[in-house]
Amino acid sequence: MKIRQFCITILSLFAASIMLQAKTWTLEECIQYAMDNNITLHKAGLTRQTSEETLKASKAQLFPSLTFTTSQNVAYNPWRASNSSTVMGSEVEQTSKTTSYNGSYKVASKWTVWNGNRNHNTVKQNTILEQAAEQDSIVSARNIEEQISKLYIQILYSKEAVGVAEETLEAAKVNERRGLEMVDVGSMSKAECSQLTATRAQDEYNVVKAQGNVLNFKRQLKALLQIIDEEDFDIAPGRATDDMALEQVPSLSAVFEEARRNRPELKKAQLSVASAELQQKIGKAQRYPTVSLEGAVGTTNSSLSKNAWGDQIRSNFNVGGGLTVSVPIFDQRASRTAINKANIQRQTALLDILDKETALHSTIESYWIDANNYQSQFKAARVSSSAAKDSYDLLSEQFAVGLKNVVELQDGKTRLLTARQNELQAKYSTILALQMLEFYQKKGE
Questions:
Q1: Are 379 and 427 in contact (CB under 8 A)?
Q2: With a cut of 50, which residues of the chain have pLDDT below it?
């Protein structure tokens, strides 16, 4: 019994450990989960499947069609003549029947031999559109990945900000306790001590506010991952190092040139230009003749015939075929309109490339400026934070022995808190900007 209870306990602890691990997400796990579950990405995938089906349909147009047609008819003739006649190539019997049955069977094929290469260019265009849909799907995936990376770093920053707020709160509690002791011995007034109490209460508020920021960023990350359950959600423990914020900032031109070669939104825009050029060819093809081949085999039968059903099918069997040439003479300006629209589409696509390149350069330049500015701020903030920490420690010691008053202590604490917050914000802002530069440089494929 004890062994069984021991096993149950071990299994429970193991299951609890797995559940705890399941609630902790690394950045890679968040991105992979989003790739598998995000609704926007699923919709982009369905759009791509639609493009694939359109491409397959256009390829099928290059081959002949084949159809089978049958017609089964019943006729009623109440005043039928008694003399014999021929129906569907067969002599009918002399009969007084007023109801007759006729059947026909036909297999036909049609093949467009040449239509100014319109069908082949349509296949090429649909191939490009399928590739464009693929790039559009990649664009959606990259946008989701970028948002996840930003939120992940925001959560890390907010968690560390909570730690700073908690440390500040602990210092405020120590000062408050010391102030109460000094009130008891008469070396501090209650008014001065109330300032310490108010500071401690404000620091408690700051802790709650910082914790709320963490929850809010987690909520946004869960929304991107399409997670709607009530289970606790948290990211894997981690802390950004100073070395990560002090990495060398890459060249702006190097990042932009690499991104311009590989970013999917630019590839999609370039494919739109190629699609418009093919649309021009398709429009011009409407001016050329269309050559097509047709062929059919068929047979008929009738209940009025004297011959048996099989004999009728054999004797009425026929084979036919032909060549059709359709020459457009006046198409009510359809071809000219199609060509002009395709030309406008091409010019729009070229402008779209320039627009996307400008937007891409602006985005990368913004991250590059942030990386340089925040890195410089971080270097200065580290020195300021260290100096403020030494100053506050000295003020705390002097306050404890009555050499400094509450106002001086509060000023020192404010300087320390501001310096630490500036350092923390500059560090994570630098890391975010550096990671975004790396993202745009290496995530184009």
A1: no
A2: 1-22, 444-445
